């Protein structure tokens, strides 16, 4: 039996606004890629305003029945007059086809041209028969409210837009402003809940939107220039917490992650070690980092540990620097580190200094391969210390020297 929790809660009396939130505690890998034992929520919103009933997004397809059941506690699906499609990824649009069927295709859909095109591709022609495509910044009067639609391309797809309710100063932001995790509350009023949630937001940003992280900064700049963020009464995302105690906070967090602003002294150390040769070197690196007051955060692939790449990705944006330790494996980088590096360079490619440490048996290749990857990325190569077999005292001295070089590297 499906045990996921559903929340249907009233957020405002005037306009009458509700959240419909499903806590997906059954998911294991978001987008079939990112390990999220912390789960995720899908948030849809319903507004009754004048003679209109407006729905903002839906839930993931596998929860369609639950969505329709929850929605029916608030309104007869036939009465929905408008459906705002912020983003067509099926974690938000999955329940839409069945809902439209029950709605007898009365509701007008509103979204970008891209969204219309994608919906039609996913669900067929009938779903987009009554689709109004908006232009960036277009305002539409619905009920007695004015909704302004603002495109935020690549947050998370090219189809994506947000809605600004002009009179009530509400921002419906879908993926932008979202995070992983299943917070025990609906909004940000409890600081303990927020503190626990924010690292999951970072992990979400990097794994889901990280490839386009420069667009995070660009789009938030655009929203700021429109003057809608600082005066917003609420930010209502498609995942995770609603922001109403401090609405600006979530976009400030997004900006920091997008720009890769470091937490003081945090150095991310990632390595593999099959038989302890790399490990020995890394313990010297870690000791030396600590001697200089740095706070190493360590992830290792060993015969006992296999950290999730999604967790490692979430640690990159606020690190001051990275240290990567690799063993050579069949004339290549160790397989687990190969995967981790591939994802870091794709999703978390930031201008941060990197020190590479390597160990090999008969011909060092891994360190050189990592060096090539790093030099083609935005990361800055500080040094490569790749040596054979057990760590000698000369190796140790070279490692300590390399760490000092890393620390002096404009940190
Ligand atoms: C499956 C396997 C493949 C390896 N392939 C290579 C190789 O192609 N070239 C090399 O120089 N050493 C190779 N080695 C040796 C390791 O790189 C070397 O022992 C290194 O010090 C291992 O460090 P670690 O114990 O921290 O993993 C291989 C070792 C294993 C177990
Ligand atoms: Fe998305
Ligand atoms: Fe999403």
From TrEMBL:
Name under which the protein is recorded: 411aa long hypothetical flavoprotein
Alphabetized SMART domains for the sequence: Lactamase_B
Molecular functions per Gene Ontology: electron transfer activity; FMN binding; metal ion binding; oxidoreductase activity
Residue intervals of the Flavodoxin-like domain: 267-407
PROSITE patterns assigned to the protein according to its UniProt record, in alphabetical order: FLAVODOXIN_LIKE
CDD domains on file: flavodiiron_proteins_MBL-fold
Superkingdom of the organism of origin: Archaea
Species whose genome carries this gene: Pyrococcus horikoshii (strain ATCC 700860 / DSM 12428 / JCM 9974 / NBRC 100139 / OT-3)
Coiled-coil parts of chain: none
